[in-house]
Amino acid sequence: METARHRNTWHIHPDPEALARRLAAAVARMAREAITARGAFHLVVAGGTTPRAAYALLPQLGSDWQCWHLYHGDERCLPPQDPDRNSLMLDTVWLSRVPIPTRQIHHIPAERGADVAARDYAAVLPPHAFDLVLLGVGEDGHTASLFPGHDWGMAKNGPATIAVHDAAKAPPQRVSLSGWRLQYTREMFFMAAGGGKRSALTAWRRGEPIPAATVGTTADVWLDNAAWPEMVPGTI
Fold first, then answer.
1. 96, 123, 130, 147: which has the highest count of C-beta atoms within 10 A?
2. Cis bond before residue 171 (omega within 30° of 0)
3. Is the confidence at residue 206, as pLDDT, over 50?
4. For the chain, what is the mean pLDDT?
């Protein structure tokens, strides 16, 4: 019987710079394909440091910006101008440089508090599948703001968004798309760089039920050499 880890495709790159270049090119290509096929590209973006370099490359690679629709996988409950906000990072390195219509950029209003923001954000999500979901992998195996030991929202009759009040990393209050809503997508990419992610990725390849592996059962995983677990008994 095939396990979830054997349904992943692993893209290994020599360093974070090469990873960012190839990832940005893949996102731009998928946008072109989605716009050609369906007239729009619905993308869920990840926060954190790993995707930042890829986002910075997209202004020179993307096109048809009026057809892009952006959503967040999660957000920290902080003021909009706090440097730890995912939305601020995205605006700084990418969105301020391209003409995506403002009405098509859907930041999570996390400054309203986790419960209110989760309720409000669920109302702006599209009824159809996303075209691409981008996600990171934490050192503990979390993805978006779905942490070990918490409810990841995998039940398909559950809410599309989750209010998090006790995240394992600061700040404790966050808003996240639920696991099933992240999975409701045509394609899913995970990104990880650096030796600090190797333990979580080793657990993933062993088939351990960490949040990233549970959500990313059929995902493409984009890594640099430092993050790649070279020897994992029982995997191929």
1. 130
2. yes
3. yes
4. 93
> Per-residue pLDDT tens for 68-81?
999 999 999 999 99
Please tell me the pTM assigned to this model.
0.93
Give yes or no for a contact between 65 and 100, defined as CB atoms under 8 angstroms apart: yes
- For residues 31 and 100, is the Cβ–Cβ distance under 8 A? no
Q: Is-contact 94 43, C-beta < 8 A?
A: no
* Contact (Cβ atoms closer than 8 angstroms) between residue 164 and residue 78: no
d(CA 73, CA 32): 22
CA 236 – CA 234 distance, rounded (Å): 7
Residue 63: the pLDDT is: 95
Single-letter amino acid, residue 1: M
Residues 6+ apart with CB under 8 A from 138: 147, 169, 197, 200, 212
Which one-letter DSSP state was computed for residue 46?
A: P
pLDDT at 236 over 50: no
CA distance 3 to 59: 38
Distance CA 62, CA 95 (A): 12
**90-to-21, 131, 210 alpha-carbon distances in Å:** 17, 19, 27
Residues 211-215, mean pLDDT to the nearest whole number = 97
d(CA 25, CA 31): 10
Q: Where do we find the tokens 């940005």?
A: 24
198: its two tokens: 């190797």
